[in-house]
UniProtKB/TrEMBL annotation:
Keywords assigned: Exonuclease, Hydrolase, Nuclease
Entry's family note: Belongs to the SbcD family.
UniProt-listed Pfam families: Metallophos
UniProt-listed InterPro entries: Calcineurin-like_PHP (IPR004843), DNA_Repair-Maintenance_Comp (IPR050535), Metallo-depent_PP-like (IPR029052), Mre11_N (IPR041796), UCP033093_metalloPase (IPR014577)
GO molecular function: exonuclease activity
UniProt protein name: Nuclease SbcCD subunit D
Keyword Hydrolase applies: yes
Family matches, as Gene3D superfamilies: 3.60.21.10
Superkingdom per UniProt: Bacteria
Amino acid sequence: MRFVHTADWQLGMTRYFLNGEAQPRYSAARREAVVTLGGIAAEAGAEFVVVAGDVFEHNQLAPREVSLSLEAMRAAGVPIYLLPGNHDPLDASSVYRSALFTSECPANVTVLDRAGVYEVRPGLELVAAPWTSKHPTSDPVAGVLADLPADGTTRIVVGHGGVDIFVPDPERPSLIRLAALEDAVERGAVHYVALGDKHSRMQVGSTGRIWYSGSPEVTNYDDIETDPGHVLVVDVDEADPAHPVRVEARKVGRWRFVTLERAVDNSRDITDLDINLDQFPDKERTVVRLVLTGSLTVTDQAALDECVAKYDRRFAALRIDEKLSEIAVLPADGEFDDLGIGGFAAAAVDELVATARSDGEDADDARAALALLLRLADRGVA
């Protein structure tokens, strides 16, 4: 038996840092990943797809987003089982209970809207643990495991949430206890546990049967999400009484969120950064966060600003992380001697330079004014 494990589609997700039309393209890419995984399921001969929570970004999506998402599921052309997660729980405002969803939900889609067993076919069951609120008061999965018999039926648990070995916080009642999962596996009542919540692909424990699939399209920077953009094709050998499992990752994501850490202390470092950014492929589907440290002259800072502005126009987004970056900007000796100005204007420049070199509260404004002056001078304005 073969199926596809995926999770955390978060359809309708927005990312505030994306440039203009990049946000609609990013939203479309998340829906396109759904269609793509349908093709993977067909190619692999998978019987169905399980989505282990957070199908939607939240329960208050625009009607168009819901309709387009359902159309993507229809286009996938394979049975899909959706588990409500912490982003889209089965509460009073649930998207799954809306008139729009229920009227347009395609025939190949089933919502796992109650905790317990769903028969896929004789001898094969899904064991679902949907979220019914954003704040569960207990382990959302443990309750559906307790009474499962080891009777030879192939069972796939579909759950969502953090596992206690990754978040060992006894004050969080919603944590999934790994011991309960491994006990169900070891006694033969459960043969695979499909989890959602972590956006990177990850095996949990040592059984080889408990996995996070990760999100099929990236949602955060690569220093936070180390391995996103996959779905898992899972084989369970039903002919063998031990039901051995094989898990294969398939890449579906096309976007990248990259963090670049660089030291910039002179014009050569800025040129190197320019070359590095220029070599990125698929800039329209790439987001870059720059973490920069160093000490620059005002001239070099102006060159850095020009570099960042140029590539911000080319990438889906590019920005300097101001919280993590630390760049000291100090005017160099003689840096403003060749502006061709005199009198009152020259005195004003000297005053700005002195302020920029100080530790006063106006230093940053002075540095910005000097950088603007240099840019204007380069354009023949000053």
